[in-house]
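Task: encode each sequence below as structure tokens.

Item 1
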Amino acid sequence: MSDAPVPQPGIMELTPYKAFAKPKRPGRLIRLMANEGALGPSPKAVEAYKAAAGEIHRYPESGSGTLVSALAKHHGLDPEKLVIGNGSDELIELICHCFAGPGDEVIYTQYGFVMYPTCAHASGATPVKVADDGFTASVDAILARVTPKTKIVFLANPNNPTGTYLARSEVERLWSFLPRSVVLVLDAAYAEYVERNDYTDGADLAEKAPNVIMLRTFSKMYGLAGLRLGWGYGAPAVVDVLNRVHGVFNVNAAAQAAGVAALEDVPFQDRSKTHNRIWVPRVQEKLRELGLEPLPTVANFMLVRVPAKTGKTPEQILAFCAERGIFMREMKTYGMTDCFRFSIGTEEENQALFETLTECLRA
């Protein structure tokens, strides 16, 4: 008999997520490792957040009704099919707990978000990793791994950390061949940045399908990562379950108020999209000049391959930049030992990155 509490099977196989810790160093600090919005939060969201301070002795609105109404109006959605989460991470966790357990399988892609297998393990289910086609999710590979044990399929579109996406036709093909008993989760955290005619965030499919839920977040373009605010839109059979099990007051009042204000600040949204549209190709061009290989991206970040001919490793580049106050993300966790990832920053931050990479690679 064990003399200590025993966790559910699979949990001890997980590696704890290493969050960014602010270094104890003076001077400039440039955070490019978390795909946060380059322009910070909407000024209107900041005002709403401050205004909520005088009411923090009150419980927040249960069910986030005002925010639900704002989302429905902004995106033209049915409010009855919306669910609000303490970040989309909470919704990922709840989906796993509600629809998968011991003996079940949860499919995710090779370079998919690390929370998918983590939450699958935590629910007692078995995560099943499916190989990508290069750096892009493969519908055929996903469908080949579906079995009677499959309960959930997670697809990040666009995908983090690769920046790639699947076209609408491929997403619909995936759904058409899935059993209706399988929940298809379309994680569209970076949808606001995508400017492709053949892209879908999944809302249209969630409107008609009985087993689809789209996830979105306020952490990226809206610049509210610190408030932990996400939402889902999907089939009543899925959303109703999530609304039954999430905490009564799972989203704090200040986050709800900031979210409503951020949706109303359309000029800020337009500036954020324009900034990304301008700087992604500029950054890619500069990286190529330095001998690096940035992958194509439709989001606000990029995956960069470091060819052997540079004479540097990703670890050396990341360490060199970190010593100078610029922080990016290593990719060893995903098995990409010759790559690193970073997000688009402000003009000043991007220029500082160019200068530091130049100094590093030409040393």
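Item 2
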Amino acid sequence: MAETTTGSTSGQSVTQDEDNDEDRDPMEDTAFSYEAASQRPFYARDETIETFDSWLNYELERELSIRGYQNIVVREMTDALLRTVVEEDLVDEVAERFEQARYDAIPESGE
């Protein structure tokens, strides 16, 4: 079964049966179904989540649309993002942002 969405990341979905994997169109058909995904909680500051949601919905989704993809769903974009962090070995970059947040949380003396 493949899930298609109406209105891109609107959350509304309609499922349809696919008889043959050879008939799948990577420009229109999602890479994996909703049932194949696992939802995990992410705990982050509201500002970070709002910035991420904006980037995901306006930057990444727009880029994928420009490249000709249809039925763009959040689970696929999130999966690609998580795979990128791991596969591109972004440990140093993530650690630097972690450290910077810790230092930014310390109030400056003399105020």
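Check on item 2: The two ends are 60 Å apart (CA to CA). Confidence is low (pLDDT under 50) at residues 1-19.
End of task.
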